[in-house]
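User: Hello! I'm new to structural biology and keep hearing that structure can be predicted from sequence alone. Could you demonstrate with Apolipoprotein N-acyltransferase? Please show me the input and the output so I can see what each looks like.

Assistant: Of course. The first part below is the input, the amino acid sequence of Apolipoprotein N-acyltransferase. The second part is the output, the predicted structure written as tokens.
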Amino acid sequence: MTRRNIKPRRAARRRAARTPQLEVVRSVDRRPRELATGLALSALSGSLWFLSCTPFDLSALSWVAMVPALFVIDRASTRLRACLLCWLVGAVGVGGGFYWMVELLRRFAGLSLPLAVLLYLVFCAYHGIIFLLFAWMVRTIRRRTSYPMVLLAPLTMATSELLVPMLFPFHLAIVQAWHPLVIQIADLAGPIGVTALLLVVNGAVYDLLTLRRKALASAVAATVILVAALLYGNFRMRHFDRLSAASPKLTIGVVQPNVAYNQKGLYHPEEASGQLAALQEQSRKLENSGAQVIVWTETAYPYSLPRDFRADFPESDPRRIRRGFTTPTVVGVLTESDAALYNSALLIDREGQQAGRYDKMVLLPFGERVPGEEYFPGLSNILPKGFGGFTAGKEPTVLPLRTADGSSWRLGAVICYEDIIPSLLRGLGALHPHLLLNLTNDSWYGARAEPWQHLALAVFGSVEQRTGMVRAVNSGISAFIDANGRVVHKTEAVDPYFDPRPAESTLATLPLLEGGRTVYAKVGDLFTYLCALGTTFLLGRAVLSSASPRP
């Protein structure tokens, strides 16, 4: 072999020996860039989600909000990195939507700003687990398979929303609350069904941007599903509009006290008589305007009542509920015995008798109950005064209303955030109420975001049960929602701590439709469980696949 042939071979070997080192250097150099890109895409995705939600209401963004996160999940160098970055998506999304929690914790728990911010961040971090679990499932399935995102995204997000318990029940579907045509499928699949529809479109957009051969199939599948959902929505809305037009009507009056929670007569007896007089004055106005039933808000009555209360007090008693009017009235009140305190709704009939009572079943964590107290009985003793102390009601109840013309109707009462808990509404729907009543107090949260978010979540309950809902809210937003989830009338939200206003009232007429007859009312979250079953099947198939896994 000549010297001329040896030299090129030696040079080639030297270059080959250097190549792995160069690749390692390049790989190391790429890591900060990959991380920065992942963080930016995650922050973008989370921001798109909370901007889609009320009070920002840029809901069109929700149809592509998950696309940056899907890029992160698919392109991150490891599954762990994909999960952590997608956890950030959830934390940013929840943080942007629930920013009002800081003021809530400062105002009512008396926490310092640093501690309130810390608990708020913990809350955001916890709810980010929904997105972390979503990322883990998607990345695990796609390690060994090539299923398109148009299939994986809706299945896995529906499963994630099912599996992760929430302190405040909410779903990504909230971003479509003001679009009745989109949310009609909630009477089949509940709010998670609407979440899945959003993820179908997001998955299809991602497939169009990344796939070649299957992109068209994904687009066609998503288009068919979306069009079918909208056609179904149009059919159901027209159907219930016809039913509503032919149904009996009920004129309901709502009294909105606009009283700050820490100024209630329950805690300041010197204010009680004035607050009760304001409620009675507004009720008289509603009666004169033709109200057939009047609704007072959660704990609006400024005194507590004994559990054996059966009839209104005599005229001479300052605690008399109805003074100057006789219209049947649903009263939000605390009822108590020697051993228990309940958050209740009472129906006082035309004769002044108690015709029915509902006791709140799902108590507010830390406000009305201390989580874990059933396992650690002394836990409430180490927390500040005002945490816990309430007893939960046992079962859903309808209040039997008899109007002046002799007609009888069933009013399904829920209190506070029970109107956004689908499982509780299904239990109430089994009693087939003609109308849902929600008595609540959102004055804790200010007037900017939470009252709108609560209303947005509540509209799904009307669609799920296909009956109207009346929301009587202490400082707004009081609202009347029809069986198609449309807000037909509402008041303003007021912050009584910074913008004190006198009591006000509002009036509207709603059709009476017997609720609880929908597919969702009967089968519950069957759709969501089928999604979880499908996700489990795909995870099992991915694990058992012989294909070489990704990191």
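User: So the tokens describe the shape?

Assistant: Right, they're a compact way of writing down the 3D structure. Reading them back into a model, for example: The radius of gyration is 28 Å.
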